[in-house]
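User: Hello, can you help with two protein structures?

Assistant: Certainly.
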Amino acid sequence: MSSTEPTILLTGFPGFLGSALLERLLARGDGPVACLVQPTYRELAERRAAEIAGPDDDRIRLYEGDITEPNLGLDGLADLESVRELYHLAAVYDLAVDPAVGEAVNVRGTEHVLDVAADLAVERFQYVSTCYVSGRYDGVFTEDHLREGQSFNNAYEETKYRAEVAVQERMADGLPATIYRPAIVVGDSETGETDKYDGPYYLLRLLLAQPSRLALSVTLPGSSDAELNVVPRDFVVDAIAYLSGLESSAGEVYQLCDPAPLSVPRFVDALAEAGDRRTLSVPTPKPLARAATERLADRGLPAEPATIDYLDHPTRYACPNTQRALAGSGLECPPFESYVDRLVAFVREHPEVGDAAMV
């Protein structure tokens, strides 16, 4: 039981990453933590808070609000004057997000959080971006890259890019911030647990929906040269918890990616092997692959046309800054092939999990 005022403000709870990160922050002795929660998710937030800290522990304080509103929809900031560190994770994680929703949540929402950080005069601002601010950058994209004149696969990438630009502009003006760019986040590498079947899960579920003796997948003209950079949730939150505790991380950008990712064909092979599927990859022009995926989705099968763009994604991600900072910590991204079987097992055991984003 704590009687002190909150020292940390967290957005993105009770989301997938936010819940795990909150657990890590409390475990290292931080807090109390004020969590901004949308009214829609209040009940879920209360359950997860009790699971993490216990029903009689007040180290987790829930505040109903909304980042799409000025002042985060709060009735003043008097209750948060003790906050000295702000973790901003709230965003729409959806490749097919409506541009207007992406703009409201990812861009304007981040600007509102930045304004509150300024009003509270926080000593540290921890921001979770994404490697895919790269858009379709042709080449190796590192922590030093951002404004490269790139095009984007979708509104999700573009709005997250614009949000990071806003954060970096405030950093240039003196905000003591750290930016974390995860690659494609999947379930826990130990348990396989996830709360949303999106991204690579569409590939996996489509394979599992087909006969084991012969499952079809598509390969685009550029697939053999493309990489699917995937990271498990536990690595992402462990890295953020560790790096955010370093004074030297202020002002830095860290890409939380796999330094040795699989090519798209090898990635599909890994899914097929873990799912016990004999797979035939059919060379398919991209427009035809997208049209076929749309038809599958219309028939209720696990398919998302927006994922097709990642089968010939031209960007490769490198993380030299992250590797330097994590050296000696014991933290490193595990190879996808070392935990893919756990992801597959979780999907098979939990068909009730959906693909809808928290908005």
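That covers the first. Now for the second protein you mentioned:
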Amino acid sequence: MNVPNILTSIRIILVPFLVVVFYLPFHWSYLVSAGIFFFAAGTDWFDGYLARKLNQTTPFGEFFDPVADKIMVATALCLLIDEFRALWMTVPAMIIIGREIVISALREWMAELGKRTSVAVSMIGKAKTMAQMASITFLLLSPPPIENWIGYLGVVLLYISSVLTLWSMYVYLKAAWPDLTPFKKEEK
């Protein structure tokens, strides 16, 4: 274990704490759950930075880092869907979670073909992640009904991240399309 892997592990360990704190019947539960999520989002950036800077990339980190991100984001989005119980929250959350499932499956399949680099993380994906993390943090801070600029900013960023989510999925699928649709020559 190295520091980047410990940070990734902490992110996974924080998931149940996020859920428990979010549902606590205290007015401060929104603030603390947003803090937990914000801290986890920070470890996502920091563990990757340290792994590259210190040359401490490991198979564990390469596998669990994206898994930890997806678990944390999907959990937070499910909490927000439950809290807001509104179509305007559910649709973008479904887009984000659905895209993560599709792209994870695509990356796994492309890796089996030995072509994982053709679906490597892009700048669009990084922008999507930043908008998504900020959006979720702001929305966790803003219980319904939203009555402040932080909540409204969270909603705007949620929709921006949904658009970036679809765009990045299109980019990944376009890159993989030749491998998804090969034409086999008929043997004579």
